[in-house]
């Protein structure tokens, strides 16, 4: 087992909405004579449809909490909107941000929160020119489970000027609190829910495939979480109003990416790095991209450690043969009504070299389980084609 230093400071409020509890947590972080920034997707269509928007607006007004709104978040959240949010926070004396939405909204809010208290360009934190030391603070009301951003230290933002998708990891990025109501899953479009299910599984798989040894406890924890996703994901897509199915998937999404389940092991993350460049250029939903890349990655690297892949397919899918296991994994993704080839989305090999270069950034290789150079990445993209 590896040395580890674990911290997670996010309060989780799980279950059917308790608006008094939500208000109590907002008031704890809100400063008098300031404003709360409400941040959400597009024009708030989803949160208005499920009634969250009106409830939160009424809650703030009834308690004399001044607020300002910023919608416009799209999948693969854009740096330009982050800049707009930072400008609003500085001009309007915002002291806290409430993100109502899924991963894109939460990541955008986290980035705004960093930039609102920073004199430089917030992109500095994503290209490693500087490290964040303070934040306004963010609370979240989750509407689409999958990314785990509601309890993670990560932010992923796309700089649309150069199609670069970059990550900022820092413990100050943890939301102050996150509200998880499984009932919101009832109205999430099937395609987004399917993508979220894949995202959960991919976070677990990135941590599972490791060179670290003597990790029996975390092996078992990750396997249990993966089996939960494999079992309840398809059930949820068939019975969208089942509270138990929604609860299992929503909580699995959170624990898959809150850091605890990966303690004592070194995760790989090469597949995520590769997919980020696909979604940065082609604006593909992240979970859909992971359903394409992960089977190709397994096919390419499987011979480096046959035992771990045999254990994976045996303990998760009850299949002893690796090649058959890869087919079953693809079938699982197809069963979520997802296409699993780049060509299905009109993506050809014209940008494979560029994507490989961008995935590497300034490194010779990526991946902690198997080191992948530019040629390796291109080969994986061809397998995914």
Which helices and strands occur, and which strands form pairs?
Layout: E1 11-14, H1 19-29, E2 35-41, H2 45-49, H3 52-62, E3 67-73, H4 79-91, E4 94-101, H5 103-115, E5 138-142, E6 154-159, E7 164-169, E8 177-180, H6 190-208, H7 216-238, H8 243-256, H9 270-282, H10 286-301, H11 306-317, H12 322-335, H13 352-360, H14 374-383
Parallel strand pairs: 1-8, 2-3, 2-4, 4-5, 5-8
Antiparallel strand pairs: 6-7
- How does the major sheet shape up? 6 strands, parallel
Overall mean pLDDT: 96
Give the topology string: H per helix, E per strand.
Answer: EHEHHEHEHEEEEHHHHHHHHH
Adjacency order of strands in the biggest sheet: 1-8-5-4-2-3
- Total helices: the number is 14
Structural class: alpha/beta
Helix content: 40-55%
Unreliable stretches (pLDDT < 50, length at least 5) are none
